[in-house]
Write a structure and sequence with these properties.
Number of domains: 2
Number of strands: 15
CATH topology of the largest domain: Aspartate Aminotransferase, domain 2
Helix content: 25-40%
Bound molecules: pyridoxal-5'-phosphate
Structural class: alpha/beta
Radius of gyration: 21 Å
CATH architecture of the largest domain: 3-Layer(aba) Sandwich
Largest sheet: 7 strands, mixed
CATH superfamily of the largest domain: Type I PLP-dependent aspartate aminotransferase-like (Major domain)
Distance between the termini: 48 Å
Shape: globular
Strand order of the largest sheet: 2-10-9-8-7-3-4
Mean pLDDT: 97
Length: 393
């Protein structure tokens, strides 16, 4: 058997497939021909190995309660060992129905109501939503946009001061960072971790985008010091990498037994137990046999992001693309257009007829920016760029 799904150019119809990305625009009253490049899933078929494994389950036809046993653990472990030189034991791996679910469980189990939880905006919006929904306080150490380097950096002094001032108990790290697409360097992660250690701050490291690293190297935060392992909940998932978000499965690694016990207890309190068999089966197939598909997809996305950069530089003088280091989401700065946040959103939606993620949803620091999902056939991206040029060129 060999990989069959290596064609990333052909546009696959996603309308009328219960796709949130494609089928929800009408309900929001957006133009009928709007092109969606917002939510983070891909317009590509997953690996054919995953499809075949799922077909086998469908053919079997019995969908009873499921449990992933040691072969599941071995597949996940080998993937992380090989790719990131990171190892863990079977009991340290907890499967959840998604990373956001795991973040909510971590917030509830590792902090008390009213406690302060740190984020670094602009950041994936469920971070602040989860903190607020659970009655905790959001503390934001906003990332700084370094105009000269064209990338975001951390204000470490502010980060530490805010921890002290607010008695922060937990830090939600986005590693790599969505939406600003930073691959955090080892020195940066060491500095952040050392500050957290100094002030007894626990860390949730969301590493869901790790496999989309295009510059330098991804570091599993917990792997950098034995002391970091002891304070960290590491969130991983094959869902971004292999386009499996609808199958709802994440792998959470917690080394510290006390933190793990608290997390598992809170997870049980939620009433959720056995996960979806489709998630288990696809994870094993993807991690064992998806290598060829992954390499080709990674290259396709790298080139798509490069294409956007070249197009923006050549055709859209008032827009700047922030250096793309990671994720399949590119971050565009529209502030030089002089438009207000609402004017910009309206122009994008109703004139360019593009459904992007408005920067404002990632926090106040995201205002004036837009996030574009480039995990789509090049033709879709070319059409999106054409529409941007018509309005902003
Ligand atoms: C940083 C980050 N974490 C988590 C998720 C979603 O994870 P899940 O679907 O497993 O809840 C996303 C999706 O875009 C993301 O960007």
């Amino acid at each position: 058997m060999s990989e069959r799904n290596l064609d990333f150019d052909t546009i696959i119809e996603r309308r009328n497939t219960m796709s949130l990305k494609y089928d929800y625009a009408e309900r929001l009253g957006f133009p009928a021909d709007i092109l969606p490049l917002w939510i983070a899933d891909m317009d590509f078929k997953t690996s054919s190995y995953v499809q075949d494994a799922l077909k086998e389950v469908v053919e079997h036809g019995i969908f009873g309660y499921s449990e992933a046993l040691s072969d599941y653990y071995v597949a996940v472990r080998e993937y992380f060992q090989k790719k990131y030189n990171y190892d863990f034991e079977e009991r340290e791996l907890i499967k959840t129905p998604g990373v956001v679910f795991a973040i909510a469980v971590a917030v509830r189990s590792l902090t008390n109501e009213g406690d302060a939880v740190m984020i670094q905006s602009p950041v994936y919006y469920p971070f602040s939503a989860t903190i607020e929904h659970n009655g905790r306080k959001v503390v934001d150490s906003t990332l700084i946009y370094d105009e000269k380097e064209n990338r975001y950096v951390i204000d470490f002094k502010d980060f530490e001061q805010k921890i002290v001032d607010n008695d922060v108990r937990l830090f939600l790290l986005c590693n790599p960072h969505n939406p600003v697409s930073r691959v955090w360097r080892k020195e940066e992660l060491l500095k952040l971790g050392d500050i957290c250690l100094r002030h007894n701050v626990l860390v949730v490291s969301d590493e869901i985008h790790a496999d989309f690293t295009f510059v330098g190297k991804h570091h599993v935060f917990a792997s950098l010091r034995p002391e970091f392992e002891d304070i960290t909940v590491t969130c991983t998932s094959p869902s971004k990498t292999f386009n499996l978000a609808g199958l709802q499965l994440a792998n959470i690694i917690i080394k510290n037994p006390t933190i793990r016990r608290a997390f598992v207890h809170e997870y049980r309190v939620s009433g959720y137990s056995e996960l979806n068999v489709m998630g288990y089966v696809s994870t094993v197939a993807a991690y064992r046999n998806g290598g060829e598909w992954y390499d080709a997809m990674h290259e396709y996305i790298r080139k798509n992001a490069e294409y956007v950069k070249e197009f923006v530089d050549a055709n859209l003088p008032k827009i700047r693309m922030i250096n793309h280091e990671a994720t399949y989401l590119v971050w565009l700065d529209f502030r030089k257009t002089g438009l207000s946040v609402d004017e910009l959103d309206n122009k994008i939606i109703y004139q360019s007829r593009l459904w992007l993620d408005s920067g404002k949803i990632f926090g106040k620091s995201g205002e004036g920016f837009q996030r574009i999902n480039v995990a789509c056939p090049r033709k879709i991206l070319e059409e999106a760029m054409k529409r941007l040029k018509e309005v902003f060129g």
